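Pasting two entries for a bug report.
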Amino acid sequence: MARKVKKKRKLKVKNVFLVFLFIILMLLGIAFLTDIKINNIVIKGNSLYSDWEIIEMARLDDYPSSLKTLSSSIEKRLEKDAYVNNVEVERPSLTKVVINIEENLPLFYYLPAEKTILADKTEVDDNFPVPTVINYVPDKVYSKFLKAIASVNYDIVKRISEIKYDPNEVDEGRFFLTMNDGNQVYLTLNKFDKIDNYLDIIKEFDNKKGILYLDSGEYFEVKG
């Protein structure tokens, strides 16, 4: 019986070279991609912090590797701050990051507590150009007031100098606002959104100063 002779397979040098070349190219590609840095950062929605402050808080100030920097990490770093409510990061390209900020805005300085009140009800010691609530607001009214002023256009909020809780026999949710321009406004909680139209209403009275009654009807009493 004839013995079977096993043929030795020769490893082709060409195949080995191709595999080796593929590995080298893959490693070079990975090294190249990980070396690509974030060099275009766009910040949207910020007013309390400058763009650079946001970049520093997000730890993007040294323009790190794009692949090594996760969007979720950027969001978590920023959302740790008391004045940041929510963050969404977009990555339109390897080198570009767009950071959309939803701020936890300071709404007013509450004089009875000597604290600045943020939109999420947090109390802080920092000072901002926001209205001062000069007297105590009962708890059952306070929560509704906070919700009402949080829904007002923030540019209008910053035009208010002082807010006085001023209930009467008709409405316990009545407030008296002193504006930065010298005008005064009566408002109730169920009509608080009317203050958004403040600038348009005042224009109708040729810049005269007076009291705007938005609590009952809509009329303007000119001073003097």
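Entry 2 (this is the one that rendered wrong in the viewer):
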Amino acid sequence: MASFDVDFFVIGGGSGGVRAARVAAEHGARVAIAESSRWGGTCVIRGCVPKKLMVYASEVSRNLDDARRQGWTIPEASFDWSSFIAAKDVEISRLSNAYLTRLQKAGVRVIEGRAVLADAHTIEVNGERITAAHVLVATGGRPRMPVTGRYISSDEAFHLPELPKRIAILGAGYIGLEFAHIFAGFGAKVTIVSRGEHVLRGFDPDLQIEAERNLAAHGITLLQGDHVDGVEHDLAMAAIGRDPASGELGLREAGVMIDGMGAVVVDEFSQSSVPHIYAVGDVTARAQLTPIAIREGHAVADTLFGNMPTPIKHELIPTAVFSQPAIATVGLTEPAARAAGYEVQVFRARFRPMRYALSGRDEFVLIKLVVCRTTNKVLGVHMVGADAAEIVQTAAIAVTMGATKMDFDRTFALHPTTAEELVLLRA
């Protein structure tokens, strides 16, 4: 590797790229990383972190309503959008700077600028050419936008100059549902337009139905269609997915195979068709989730510089939708389990949680276990309800370890909690 300027060059300063760069440097590699925007990538700057801050803030209105019905005397509250946005931006800047600081402390050469491949071993950034023994592409994705019509994406939703009174959202996947609840919680009139028969395509059918009930309970209008024409709105937002950001990086010219959707084709080691070029995260379109990109980036660093070849199996990935209430899932849905040939047994409970016993809020918890009748193994855990993501994250440990329904049954319940229903479900 001595003939190259660096051992490892990372293109992209998001979660996956930063983790790979830092771990590689800690293994002793000479590392450089380039980012064309802000450190932290989609998740920190324009994704899960600011979105979760929005979720927390937008939940306050319903918490106040519940509190009034529990005996609290609370005057009518008002929400100031500009104050929230300013506070949110301060926190995002803090996190972005933390990413940068961790790279610098690890000894990574940090470059602010747009990097492209001049050839298979040469990266050009800010007019400088740097040769690298290994290259990692971690450029993430970008919002997919409709061909016609005027829409903002989720990127712009974090920086609106004012809160819209009426918003129409095209797309009923997790991004669409999350923002529908966010804007409704802030007081906007929300219409969500689903291009499919049900929301949350690919999720368990019981979760889809419960999610649709909760849209109605929050005053969110759900329509079917492929555009928002005819929907009264101040603002239209597209939430129809994200595409890999692989263009204009010189990848094809360097011999890297790109599929029809623009994703870098890689194997279980995140290795592309060019042996020394790797790719992780959304640019590979394997699983567009931050923890997956982080795990993939760490594995590449361990494989190349830690003497620990580490393949990644994209199985049993916990997923959450931060709607209100939240939705979380791990493992196989009921249709997927049947399609895979399992003889399926379903355990299900739907109930109003204790937290709404006094307020009377029309909101229910749904918990569902998908179990193999032959082996008693738990194939999937699916939940709608407050704290669903926190509960399913813990349940995912058991599912990943291969727990059976009998293991769940012999676990003592922690009462009174919502989570105890996981171990109390009976046929």
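Dev reply: Rendering is fixed now. As a check, the viewer should reflect this: Residues 328 and 390 are 9 Å apart (CA to CA).
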